[in-house]
Design brief:
This protein is of the alpha/beta class and 695 residues long. It contains 25 helices and 22 strands. The structure holds zinc ion.
Length: 695
């Protein structure tokens, strides 16, 4: 592993931060923290922490010694100086004299020592940084170091690699006890350059930011070299296998492995938790596969090395202690795969409950059981899935699972992967300070739901993308215009899918991509459409057929593909169609548009009728006079002129006298998605038009 230190970059960082009033020590601290955070082999997703001891003025001008230490919620890769809140060392150092300190008291003492009362909570490892004398301290969960510390004979291995240059600290849960233990170990070996925390990670010390950082790189490199001697090298985050450890000898796999797009909806359905009739807590999936992941999930000893626990305790809260392992996905025997995966899921959840019950029994204050759903699923022959309440959380779980694949792979090359005990993992998973790292507040109404919006790149579709995102759903923006889809997807943090809804293969490919990326589909807003005109007795048949292709047939293609995915999930679903006022109240010369829309209204009712027993609901919105590509400014002007009124009067020509917007229509779609007991319904959004009203 090479040092990424650059004098020029360091100078630039100092220059930039100095302009913000940040001192030199903290500026360099921020610079090297980012260097560490930029390498996923060292830390990912908020793991690790760093600190610097410096002097800062208080409001009254008194200069006090402070520790600037990473704040909770900040990621090292993107940290800013304000992500390293300053705490007064004179307030923290005396705590080292205590024999014990509760977690809540520790957090309170740390907050009480903040210079800025509005700063984020200092890291749970703050006292460890405070009790040690070094100016700069860096802490990571480097993969290569974990491969050495996650071993039955970790201490001997670390001695072999580091000699007396590093102190060894046995596993102690982070917090006050670890801070004291580390301080005691250091007092016995005051000359060390850092510490290895068994089954946890590594600390490096330095008098300068560069020294602490480069010591980290050196120590991690020594670990990498030890792993390479055992038969593996880790280069650029990818293990290059020179020699395959025996544990990874592959099992016999079925001849044809089902694709992730077929497997994911089955697993997603099995993970969904019933909340009541027809209601589920849903999970989003993130699929990963690579030669390294396949070697891992196909290994003959998978059930041993993958069932020890996580590479470092920090992961437990996002991945749970253990992944779920399913049978291989035999493409020729999917019913058998589903039955096997179901049995595995039931056994996993029963085991999780037993783990909670057994470990909760020894708690002074009983804990509240968390959900029993796995956050990582390993499928031999295929790869791994991360699970989360949102696509972003699922991706984090998948990233951490990949890190575990790398660490366990290297650990098995060196010896035998061994993690912290079940009881120790429980203490982390149910630790109040770790729980605080997870998202707070009530989940949004559509959290965990995956919605696909066709024609999502503009107009009503784009408004739907924003509205469903605001309701908590993960949004897939499908549009024939790739750049339009990407622009809206970027805005809502969603997935862009290029899709021509009039082509069967394009729709199939789009839905397969969504199932692979997110695990499935819960809601479809079948919105793509275009207005064709013509007097019905004279119109070219081609015009009518083209309109039917997009305004009717495409809706059927999209709905049918969605039902295919929903059927694998077995958790119902919702099909929403954009039909126009034209479907109910035809306008003159709009037959080519209104006729297929009328057929689509009937299509919606047929889906409601035929698939209600699968829990799949269907509904439509009939809107009128929305400023979009279908009704552009030129058309509005023409129509207004024909009636001898202004465009504004035309647009608000309804019972309420109010112009209707794309956002109003999007709100109606969200409302229908949330109306769990409503199907075969049409909701009118037109400001009031008696001829188009349904009842
Ligand atoms: Zn740590």
């Amino acid at each position: 592993m090479d040092s990424r230190w650059s004098d020029a970059d360091a100078e630039r960082a100092v220059e930039r931060y100095t302009k913000q009033g940040v001192g030199l020590d903290l500026a360099l601290r921020t610079y090297t923290t980012r260097l560490l955070g930029a390498d996923p082999r060292l830390v990912i997703h908020g793991g690790g922490n760093t600190s610097v001891k410096t002097v800062m003025p208080t409001l009254t001008g008194e200069r006090v010694e402070v520790l600037c230490v990473k704040g909770s919620g900040w990621d090292m890769a993107s940290i800013e100086p304000q992500g390293l809140p300053a705490v007064r060392l004179d307030a923290l150092r005396p705590l080292a004299e205590l024999d014990a300190l509760g977690d809540e008291e520790m957090v309170s003492a740390q907050r009480g020592a903040l210079i800025d009362a509005n700063a984020p909570n200092p890291s749970v490892e703050t006292l460890l940084h405070a009790f040690l004398p070094h100016k700069y301290i860096d802490h990571t969960h480097a993969n290569a170091v974990l491969a050495l510390t996650d071993q039955p004979d970790a201490a001997a291995l670390c001695r072999e690699v580091y000699g007396e240059t590093m102190a060894l600290v046995p596993y102690v849960m982070p917090g006050f006890a670890l801070a004291k233990r580390a301080m005691e170990v250091f007092r016995e070996q005051p000359g060390v350059e850092g510490m290895v925390l068994l089954r946890h990670g590594i600390f490096s010390f330095g008098e300068s930011a560069r020294e602490a950082y480069e010591r980290m790189i050196d120590k991690v490199t020594l670990a990498e070299q030890r792993i390479a001697r055992a038969g593996r090298t880790t280069l650029a985050g990818v293990a290059m296998h020179r020699k395959r450890p025996k544990a990874f000898a592959p099992i016999r796999l079925p001849q044809r492995i089902a694709p992730a797009a077929d497997v994911a909806p089955i697993l997603r359905g099995l993970a969904a938790q019933p909340l009541g009739p027809g209601r589920y807590r849903r999970w989003v999936l993130a699929f990963r596969s690579s030669p390294q992941i396949l070697e891992f999930v196909n290994g003959s000893e998978l059930t041993r090395y993958a069932q020890q626990g996580t590479a470092t305790p920090d992961h437990v809260i996002r991945t749970k202690r253990l992944p779920l392992i399913t049978p291989p996905a035999d493409a020729d025997e999917m019913a058998g795969f589903e039955a096997g995966a179901r049995a595995a899921m039931e056994a996993y959840q029963a085991a999780y409950h037993a783990y909670f019950t057994a470990n909760n029994a020894r708690q002074a204050v009983p804990k509240t059981e968390l959900d029993p759903v796995p956050r990582v699923i390993l499928v031999p022959g295929l790869g791994l899935f991360g699970l989360g309440a949102t696509a972003a959380e699922a991706a984090v779980a998948a990233d951490l699972a990949e890190t575990n694949v790398e660490v366990i792979g290297a650990a098995e090359a060196v010896g035998t992967f061994t993690a912290i005990s079940e009881a120790e993992a429980f203490d982390i998973e149910y630790w109040s300070l770790e729980q605080a790292k997870l998202g707070k507040g009530a989940a949004k109404a559509l959290a965990g739901h995956i919605v696909v919006i066709t024609g999502g790149g503009s107009g009503i579709g784009a408004a739907c993308a924003r509205a469903f995102r605001a309701a908590g759903a993960d949004v897939c923006v499908a549009d024939v215009d790739e750049r339009a889809a990407e622009a809206v997807a970027a805005e809502v943090g969603g997935l862009a899918v290029t899709c021509d809804v009039t082509r069967h293969d394009s729709v199939e490919a789009a839905f397969a991509k969504i199932a692979e990326r997110h695990g499935g589909i819960d809601i479809v807003v079948s919105n793509a459409g275009r207005a064709w005109q013509g007097r019905i007795g004279e119109v070219d048949e081609r015009v009518l057929r083209d309109s039917f292709e997009l305004n009717f047939w495409a809706h059927q293609t999209v709905a049918q593909a969605a039902v295919g995915v929903m059927s694998r999930q077995r958790t119902g679903g919702c099909l929403l169609f954009n039909v126009s006022k034209q479907a109910i109240d035809p306008g003159p010369n709009f037959g080519p548009y209104g006729l297929p829309k009328a057929a689509t209204l009937a299509l919606m009712r047929q889906y409601a009728l035929d698939h209600g027993r699968d829990g799949i609901r269907a509904a439509a919105v009939n809107a009128d006079r929305i400023r979009t590509g279908l009704l552009d400014e030129a058309m509005i002007t023409t129509r207004a002129r024909a009636r001898g009124i202004s465009p504004e009067t035309y647009m608000s020509g309804n019972l309420l006298g109010l112009e209707v917007s794309a956002e109003d229509v999007a709100a109606a779609f969200v409302h229908l998605a949330l109306s769990e007991k409503t199907t075969a319904a049409t909701l009118t959004v037109d400001g009031g038009n008696i001829a188009a009203s349904l009842r």
